[in-house]
Design goal:
Elements (H helix, E strand, L loop, with lengths): L9 H29 L13 E6 L2 E2 L4 E6 L4 E6 L5 E3 L12 E8 L1 E2 L31 E2 L13 E5 L9 E3 L2
Parallel strand pairs: 1-10
Antiparallel strand pairs: 1-2, 1-5, 3-4, 3-6, 6-9, 7-8
Length: 177
C-alpha cells in the first residue's frame, strides 16, 4: 500500500504534514554540516612563534635574500625574504606566522638572475640568422650568488638560531665576506 498525501484520512494528512515539515529542514542542515566539515582550520599542526630580524652583509642591509630556518627535531622549516631594509619575517604554515620552537640551522641565499642577452635576433630570411641550438651554447648562465656560497648550505652556513615559545625572537644575522 502506497501512502498518498492527497488521501482524505486525517491520520495520513497529519503524517504528510510532519514529513514535509522535516523535509524542509533536511537540505539546509546537510549543507551546514558539509560546510562545517570542509572549512579550513586556523589552528596549525604544531605551535609556531613569530620570528623577525635583519640580515646585513659587511654592515649593509641585504635586500631580497631568502632566509630559511630548518628544525630537524620537528621536521619543519620556515621561510622569509628580506625587504629593502634587510628585515625578514618567517612563515611556516601561513604568512608571517613564525617558526616552531627549538634549535634551527639557518641558510641565507641571494641570487641575481643573469642578464638577458640583448643581442638582436636576425630575421629568418637573413643570411645572419642562426637557428636556436646551432652555434653557440644554449645552456643558460647559472644564477650568480651575491652572498658568500657558504651561507647557502645547511652543512656550511655555520648559522644557527633558537626560537623560544616565550621571548621576542628578534634574530639578526651580520654576515661578512
Amino acid at each position: 500500500m502506497q501512502r498518498d498525501c492527497d488521501s482524505a484520512t486525517d491520520h495520513n494528512a497529519t503524517s504528510c504534514e510532519i514529513t514535509m515539515r522535516y523535509s524542509f529542514w533536511i537540505f539546509p542542515l546537510c549543507c551546514l554540516a558539509a560546510l562545517g566539515c570542509t572549512s579550513e582550520s586556523r589552528e596549525t599542526p604544531v605551535p609556531v612563534y613569530p620570528v623577525t630580524g635583519v640580515v646585513t652583509l659587511n654592515g649593509e642591509p641585504v635586500v631580497g635574500a631568502d632566509v630559511t630556518f630548518y628544525n630537524a627535531d620537528a621536521a619543519r622549516s620556515a621561510f622569509g625574504r628580506t625587504d629593502d631594509e634587510g628585515r625578514y619575517q618567517l612563515s611556516t604554515f601561513s604568512s608571517n606566522d613564525g617558526a616552531v620552537d627549538g634549535r634551527h640551522i639557518v641558510t641565507i641565499v641571494k641570487v641575481d638572475a643573469p642578464a638577458a642577452d640583448a643581442a638582436p635576433v636576425a630575421s629568418i630570411e637573413s643570411e645572419a640568422y642562426v637557428p636556436p641550438g646551432a652555434g653557440a651554447s644554449t645552456t643558460p648562465a647559472k644564477p650568480k650568488s651575491t652572498l658568500p656560497e657558504k651561507f647557502s648550505s645547511q652543512q656550511t652556513s655555520g648559522l644557527t638560531a633558537i626560537v623560544n615559545a616565550e621571548g621576542d625572537n628578534e634574530i639578526d644575522f651580520e654576515l661578512t665576506n
